[in-house]
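Structure tokens please, single chain.
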Amino acid sequence: MENTICIIENLNDIKIIKKQLSNNPNLKVFTLNYNTHRLLEKNNISHKIGEYYLTNDDKKLINQLAIDITLNWWKNEEIRRILTVDNITIPEFIEMELFQYILSIFKSAKTILKIIQDISPNEILSVTNLNPFIKLICDEMNIKFQNLSDGEISSLHYDRINIKYNIGPIPISITTSRTKYKKIKNFTEKISQKSFRLSPDKNQSKNNAILLLEFNPIIYEPLIRELKKLGKNIFLLNQRRPAILGKKSLEIIKESNCKIIDLANFEQNIKSQILNEKKSLIENLEKLWQDDLLFEKIFSMDSYNLWSSIKPTFSKMCNERFHESLGRILLLNELFSQYNISEILEWAETGQEEKEVLAVSKKYGIKSIMIQHSMFPIGEIWKPFGRFLALFSHEHQSDYQAIWGNLTHEFAVSNGHSKEKLLITGSPKHDSFFSIKKNNKKTGKILLATTGPPAIFAEDSTTDIFLKYDEYIKEIFRVVKKNHPDKELIVKPHPQSDFINNAIDLINETDSNAKIIVDANLPELINECDLVISFNTSSILLESIILEKPTISLITDDWAKENEIIKMNGVMSIDNIQNVESDISKIISNNEYNLELKSSSKQFLENYLSNHGTASEQLVKILKKL
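Here you go.
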């Protein structure tokens, strides 16, 4: 019998594989990622998880290749010239997304190579994004090759936007394209700006202004109200998220006299310049992509080139994103020329839009302050990726960083950060948590706040890591249903688009009657629960501690144990799924243990977070002195 294998990635039509299996029941099927594994599993198709063939050394190699290519692919003199606009190199704006894209490509490529080396097939059937790459290998090794389908097209992280809400008890999660989302967002915001007069007027161009980037007014309400006391104009520039999310956010914006910036309003005087420069850029890029020899040297794995496989998607993604960046750079110059902006506040300087603003603002001498927005991982394994995630293991683009407390300060200084740039403010986004009247009455509710693997580097991007999360979730449901039937388990999936739909599907399969909340007032939701369960070092663990709730962290990766919240026993940590049943019973019924946990949680909170409930005030005081 001929040794035929089928390699599958991002399958969009299950009938393709069913047909092959009907013709050859002995066909060996291999998957390249979690989503494909789940699809085949649902359809009862026997298969092997291809990533199991990767060794630790393979994963380290994949990481290093992805880092090197992301940082250096554009540094050829000709490429740099084309992609430099106003002395700004625009490929740096999409580093985070591009790194994840390249990592995924090289992980799949290395997995394919390891499968072929181990199995030594006579024939390969393929449904992947890398069919040309596989054919090169087959041609060299004299293996028959059949392209069944090219699979779904890969994309950058923010090319897909998730819209989520609950209709009564039914969770609705819709993922749409970046282009469609922006059209909807721009249309609705133009209506709201005109209806409520939220655009800045010419009289405000002379006064100093603070520019906020991508802020949710509801989450940062205390800060926005404190900023008003500075007597400066407050401008909000949200290019990814809507500025107004409903009645509450509108009230905050109006009462704070905050004005919404729409960059499209600055287009009138430079419209022809934007069109001409965009046209020139696209023409130069189209010529650039034809230099196959150049890119074959850059994108290769074990002497096999990947460029022929990724050229259509890579060039398309770059064309679209660089086209966007060029236009926004020109519009931002108009904004900063017309308005006297003295400070910029942002919380996610890894995003393309934030990076553009910070790069252009430096020309105008505008101070920028990044506000720490989450508990970030500090494990050694994360350090090489700090640049892509704005972790404190790497230098930041912003001039100053408003950090949560002494532990973050110590970590940042130990990694070479200047003490003068580190502003200990506490967390403005958590001020509202401290003002809530704590609910100490037993409600019988348990909150499971699911997350997914960070999927940043090779070690935490493989199918087996995703399966660990799945198994923990299923075990939580089993234990609560079996041992604590009087408890109500509420699930809040992480909002990230890559995970939320998978999480909802898994939960519905586990318990069709599960209560799933995708959009909620998080402080209120936590406050009405008796117990909160999440994963690793999710910030919801900190938020649960603030509200004095017993809290469990489900540990899926050893790096999580290096963070202070775990080392200081701020939460109960479970690093073995076999202990879930006994540990949940312990935290529910053992009063003595809960008193110990509450004491250590309080101690962690004091050490990790400064200025409880007054972080916004502290930040504004510091802004006055900068």
